[in-house]
Amino acid sequence: MRYPVAPPTLADVAERAGVSRQTVSNAINNPDLLRADTLARVQEAIEELGYSPNRAARNLRTRSSHLIGLKFQPAQEGTANAAMDRFVHSLVETAGGAGYHILLFAVGEDEDHLRGYDDLLRATAVDAFIVTDTYLGNPQAAWLRQRRAPFVSFGRPWDDDAADHPWVDVDGAAGVDLATTHLLDRGHQRIAWIGWHKDSRIGEDRRSGWTRAMHGRNLSTTGLASRTEDTVSSGHDAAAVLLDEAQPSAFVCASDTLAMGVLHTLRDRGLTPGHDVSVIGFDDSQVAQVINPGLTSVRQPLEEVAVEIVRALEGLLSTPAVVSPGVLLTPTLAVRETG
Amino acid sequence: MRYPVAPPTLADVAERAGVSRQTVSNAINNPDLLRADTLARVQEAIEELGYSPNRAARNLRTRSSHLIGLKFQPAQEGTANAAMDRFVHSLVETAGGAGYHILLFAVGEDEDHLRGYDDLLRATAVDAFIVTDTYLGNPQAAWLRQRRAPFVSFGRPWDDDAADHPWVDVDGAAGVDLATTHLLDRGHQRIAWIGWHKDSRIGEDRRSGWTRAMHGRNLSTTGLASRTEDTVSSGHDAAAVLLDEAQPSAFVCASDTLAMGVLHTLRDRGLTPGHDVSVIGFDDSQVAQVINPGLTSVRQPLEEVAVEIVRALEGLLSTPAVVSPGVLLTPTLAVRETG
To answer: Where do the HTH lacI-type domain residues begin and end (chains A, B) (predicted)?
Structure first.
């Protein structure tokens, strides 16, 4: 079966209008050269066929594809982490308003993490990148800078104080401080922290919000913290140990995934979340929103992140290019029944 | 602050290699014209700078962008529905393997739903589309066909028996039949259905799997079904009414969102899921995976869906174009504690 796949061409317009291709070209580029009735006929054919001068030709003239590359990282199954979905949607909407489309690429787990960038960059398929995984020692930022590829990172350049690229990030410490202070204001004093291993700069940043809030009230944090993997079972185990050894009345966690583990431990022990022991997570996931009782959680302003990233991209891609300073946004607390 | 945004050009290569632009052009297009040492010097400069003949120029020659447009629809907050995230990731990986990138576009709630398609199509920015919302009366398929835009739909053409576009779908009826039969085999006889309103063809299809399985065992479905909105609170209310009026021992739901509502009702009444009353959802969401007890749920083979969609796209974009027949894939059941 044949399928008419090609979009309409200039030749199609010429045939429909019963004129030469040169006449169609003139109608587009030099309409004054044509008689009014001929011009009207060509314009009618253009409208009917939905013809548009080829974007590839336009790109060649402007040296711009109006595409922004984003490596898509899906939520891991078996976790509650799903911020990417909300972030990507905000980004697609905001970028669209500025005339850019988001081009997704994937990098397989076994592959060279830079290959996807290299492929897109060498072929000039994208005008710029958005980099989302700025973990410690991540080579992407340095590599992109070296290739003179414009990019904005969602995440601070943790390992590079002299970074000369724009970035947008959410203040995790402020979010956890907010959560901890919320519990302190409700009378809790023994508030435990369950976070990630020390090599996670994001995790250490979030943890610092807990120590800041506790120390601000002259409360000790000794023996009240646990560092573990970001899995439900790790959160479950860490909560069990802390309950046995430190008797906290509340938990603040670096993720909703860890908070789910804490809730499982409370259930094992017949403790009611929000009544016997309070629990606060981080990311305001779907899971936090639909479980019963609902999980109180720190919510990242991802819509604002998208706006700031697109603003920074527009600066980078203007002439002359402007590198906007880093932007640190403050999260909010979605208060539900658990804390 | 200036920022070096431009990718390397042919002129950059010429300067680095200390040769004319014509020589660089010859090195790429007519290497036999050059002396071996000159060619080597140009190739070295190309390698060092990461220069690649401009993609826009290549696109113009091939009339192809190697981009596939996908309207991104985020999971609604407050629901457990998140199949899109897993689907998009599979799609990006599979399409990448076939030499295509996924270009996302958004359509605001207030806007003309066809505008995003129109913009991309008129500018020839994409080679084809993937359409994901094939609900009853959806004008996209007809509109795209009329514009001769190649597309593959994830979803059957419910309202168009004579559809001449490729489609890939998951057999929702088979999935619900599987779930219901699983409960029947465990001895349940009064199995209730909570699904969507009658105007949802997907919902009616899923429901038909429940009636098929029940009638296959000569069991009545009278009084055991509820049609409602796809929200947690609707599932909660529907379960309360069914428990009062029909005393089911198990629930099969059209979504994990509805199943979460059922679990809330069981909690209200002190009933233990999987022990007192069984519950099965649909979509194998993160929520199903991380709650305790875990929610048994029908799982769509989204990785296979992506493979089949890319296969169909490759057919459409080959010369001559090939329209592959529709593909209906069978889901599996992720069995956990609730059913």
So the answer is: 8-62
Residue A87 lies in a domain: yes
Cα separation, B75 vs B78, whole angstroms: 9
- Contact residues, B window 167-206, toward A, CB-based 8 Å cutoff: none
Residues in contact with B29: Cβ distance below 8 Å, sequence separation at least 6, in sequence order? none
pLDDT digits (tens, 9 = 90+) for A113-169: 566 666 666 555 788 999 887 655 567 777 777 777 889 999 888 766 666 789 999
Domain identity same for A177 and A160: no
**Quick check: is A57 in a domain?**
no
Pick from A54, A96, A123: CB nearest B52: A123
Per-residue b or e along B101-116, where b marks 16 or more CB atoms closer than 10 Å to that residue's CB: bbbbbbbeeeeeeeeb
Q: Is the ipTM of this structure higher than 0.85?
A: no
Nearest to A289 among B67, B77, B84 (CB): B77
Kindly report, residue by residue over B26-69, the tens digit of the pLDDT.
Answer: 787 667 778 888 989 998 988 887 776 654 454 444 557 788 99
Alpha-helical regions (H) of chain A: 10-17, 21-29, 36-49, 55-62, 83-97, 115-122, 140-146, 172-185, 201-216, 232-246, 256-268, 286-290, 302-316
CA distance A176 to A207: 7
**Same domain, yes or no, for A250 and A206?**
yes
Are the C-beta atoms of residues A173 and A209 closer than 8 Å to each other?
yes
Quote the domain boundaries for residue B27: 10-53
Q: How many CB pairs under 8 A join A and B?
A: 222
